[in-house]
Amino acid sequence: MSASRHARVPVHPAVQAVTDRIVRRSRPGRIAYLDMIERARAAGRSRSALGCSNLAHTVAACGPAERTALVGEAAVSLGIVTSYNDMLSAHQPFETYPRHIKDVAAGIGAVALVAGGVPAMCDGITQGRAGMELSLFSRDVIAMATAIALSHDVFDGALLLGVCDKIVPGLVEGALAFGHLPAALVPAGPMASGLPNAEKAAVRRQHAAGEIGRTEPAAGRGRVVPLARHLHVLRHRQQQPAC
């Protein structure tokens, strides 16, 4: 491969100017954040500094083995933050993830606890209704809920269960409030596609033309697609649940 392929492409002056301005304006906030993370890291394991009553609350809902492990110093404690609900096909599989994670953690001498849940909505469900106005705002709520879940301050790491374009950023933003802890984003796995895009697009065009759901065909409007057929297609607009 020629050296020219590795030559650095000059940054457009406008892009560089914007980047430099962002760096300058964000410097105080970045310094404060990194200082907070460094102080938290230097303080060591937060669970070790808990008072007796705090620790008692932490282990109250645990089984005997988990309780013994958490009271000791050796076991790693993992906090699970989940976006599970039955409304979204991409999130429904998370119903069983915490149990699997707990079993695997126990097998290696660690303890995994569900620290909290976060809301997860889908634009595809709320589109065209008042609920769609909450879509982007929900990301902030998810970030706050994630930070609240991790504020128990007894974890050595975090597992963030979520997918989709609002839930993932919210989970990551919330976890960054505890940036001294290692965290991993856990998706729900591959998903089989639903109906072909062309078929879904055809039904949407029919719906827009008023050809779906009517009991009688209007003169000159062509055939009527039964509402049941429309609902069948709508059920497949979203991808199928993850494997």
From TrEMBL:
Record bears the keyword Membrane: no
Cross-referenced PROSITE patterns: ILVD_EDD_1 (PS00886)
UniProt keyword list: 2Fe-2S, Amino-acid biosynthesis, Branched-chain amino acid biosynthesis, Iron, Iron-sulfur, Lyase, Metal-binding
Ranges of residues in domain Dihydroxy-acid/6-phosphogluconate dehydratase N-terminal: 78-216
Pfam families listed in its UniProt record: ILVD_EDD_N (PF00920)
Similarity comment text for this entry: Belongs to the IlvD/Edd family.
Full protein name: Dihydroxy-acid/6-phosphogluconate dehydratase N-terminal domain-containing protein
Lineage: Bacteria, Bacillati, Actinomycetota, Actinomycetes, Kineosporiales
